[in-house]
TrEMBL record:
CDD domains: Riboflavin_deaminase-reductase
Cofactor: Zn(2+)
Protein keywords: Hydrolase, Metal-binding, Multifunctional enzyme, NADP, Oxidoreductase, Riboflavin biosynthesis, Zinc
Source organism: Wenyingzhuangia gilva
Name under which the protein is recorded: Riboflavin biosynthesis protein RibD
Statement: the UniProt record of this protein carries the keyword Metal-binding: yes
Top-level taxonomic group: Bacteria
EC number: 3.5.4.26, 1.1.1.193
Cofactor note: Binds 1 zinc ion.
Gene: ribD
Pathway: Cofactor biosynthesis; riboflavin biosynthesis; 5-amino-6-(D-ribitylamino)uracil from GTP: step 2/4; Cofactor biosynthesis; riboflavin biosynthesis; 5-amino-6-(D-ribitylamino)uracil from GTP: step 3/4
Pfam families: dCMP_cyt_deam_1, RibD_C
GO MF annotations, alphabetized: 5-amino-6-(5-phosphoribosylamino)uracil reductase activity; diaminohydroxyphosphoribosylaminopyrimidine deaminase activity
Membership in a protein family: In the N-terminal section; belongs to the cytidine and deoxycytidylate deaminase family. In the C-terminal section; belongs to the HTP reductase family.
Length: 350
């Protein structure tokens, strides 16, 4: 059973999850203010450039005089630096909030420990590590981005009972280009939920050509991720969905070219392309990327041990031959069932 402090932190975690995608590149933090055992204020990080969670929670309190005898629960160490907004640690001090429970320390160098230091110097009671694992998980994209200087990488594919991600097939025109569905409707919806959580989504050239994917969140709602295509020789024609201009799309290529429908980024394909792509995504402040295939692209991430999490959806069919699914040589952290499909979920320690 959760302790009373964990219960309030759990509420802060749930609040944070409401805003995740819009706060990028800020971490989406949740905050709850409690007075005499009752929640009197709540908040989560606004869309980028707007107020942080602590500010929104403080502003939501109707009777400000209660703050002087309240407790603040916040999923991440309050910030101590001037970004788009002033430091939250200073605001907490100014509002005389005496007790602060923090989910996890901010490992981002501009904050790390400094927010806590401000509060301790101001004589506040500070507790760190309430529901720490949940809070670290909540902020894993932000931590990976700053500490590893690359986005958090999630691999995902759907495979048959006998380990294929597609049948053997040729596609010669855009009219023939569509995915071979292995997943059931529940799994498709789950995929769109995952897409709505990640900042960007990437596919290889053959996947774009054979599937003509849209890569949106249409079955779940939420913001669709920035689309990323690798296309060395610009083999994917403009009539494909990735060039419809509806969603920001970045194309990594070797060619010198321009378009107002997508953003081209020139890289050197004779060198390690994934490290160049990661560098560009870091510069673009993209905090996470979902790699949806195909086989070659997924395998290149796996070979370079360049991934943090993976979802493998397993359908009901057997294809007997076709495009072989990638293989992860580690055990899944958990497996869950979605109707007739199952999902293996792999999470690496950060
Ligand atoms: N069931 C599922 O979940 C999924 C199934 N699929 C299926 O997978 C198949 C496509 O997979 P696959 O054929 O492996 O193709 P990919 O989609 O992985 O694309 C491979 C091509 O993309 C470029 N590319 C990708 N990665 C790299 C890299 N690391 N370095 C350099 N170039 C790279 C190359 O293009 P170039 O040769 O022009 O340089 C390469 O030939 C399709 O049949 C599709 O339907 C796809 C996604 C998910
Ligand atoms: N076939 C297959 C998947 N295929 C992936 O989904 C992409 C299509 O996306 P969209 O156009 O948005 O529906 C496709 O290009 C490939 O990356 N995904 C799955 O979860 N299960 C499946 O069985
Ligand atoms: Zn802040």
């Amino acid at each position: 059973m959760l302790s009373i402090h964990e219960t309030f932190m759990q509420r802060a975690v749930s609040l944070a999850k409401k805003g995740t995608r819009l706060a990028y590149p800020n971490p989406c933090v949740g905050a709850v203010i409690v007075c005499d055992g009752k929640i009197i204020g709540e908040g989560y990080t606004s869309a980028y450039g707007g107020p942080h969670a602590e500010v929104n929670a403080i502003n939501s309190v109707q009777d400000e005089s209660l703050l002087g005898k309240s407790t603040l629960y916040v999923t991440l160490e309050p910030c101590a630096h001037y970004g788009k907004t002033p430091p939250c640690a200073n605001l907490i001090e100014a509002k005389n909030i005496p007790k602060i429970y923090i989910g996890c320390i901010d490992t981002f160098a501009a904050v790390s420990g400094k927010g806590i230091e401000i509060l301790l110097k101001a004589g506040r009671e500070v507790h760190v590590g309430v529901l720490e694992d949940e809070c670290i998980d909540l902020h894993k994209r932000f931590f990976t981005y700053h500490n590893k200087k690359r986005p958090y990488i999630v691999l995902k594919w759907a495979e048959t009972q006998d380990g294929f991600i597609d049948k053997e097939r040729e596609v010669s025109s855009v009219d023939e280009a569509k995915p071979t569905w292995i997943s059931n409707e529940l799994s498709k919806q789950k995929v769109h939920q995952i897409r709505a959580t990640e900042h960007a989504i990437m596919v290889g050239t053959n996947t774009a050509l054979k599937d003509n994917p849209t890569l949106t969140t249409r079955l779940f709602g939420g913001v669709s991720p920035i689309r990323i295509l690798i296309d060395k020789n610009l083999r994917v024609p403009n009539e494909y969905h990735l060039y419809n201009g509806e969603i920001k799309t970045i194309v990594f290529t070797e060619q010198e070219t321009n378009s107002n429908l997508v953003q081209f980024k020139k890289i050197d394909f004779s060198k390690n392309i994934l490290s160049q792509i990661m560098e560009v995504l870091y510069q673009e402040k993209i905090q996470s990327v979902l790699v949806e295939g195909g086989k070659q692209l997924l395998n290149s991430f796996i070979e370079q041990n360049l991934w943090d999490e993976a979802f493998v959806f397993v359908g009901n069919d057997k294809f007997e031959k076709g495009v072989e699914a990638p293989v992860l040589e580690v055990s899944p952290s958990k497996t869950f069932v979605l109707g007739t499909n199952s999902v293996r979920h792999y999470i690496k320690e950060i």
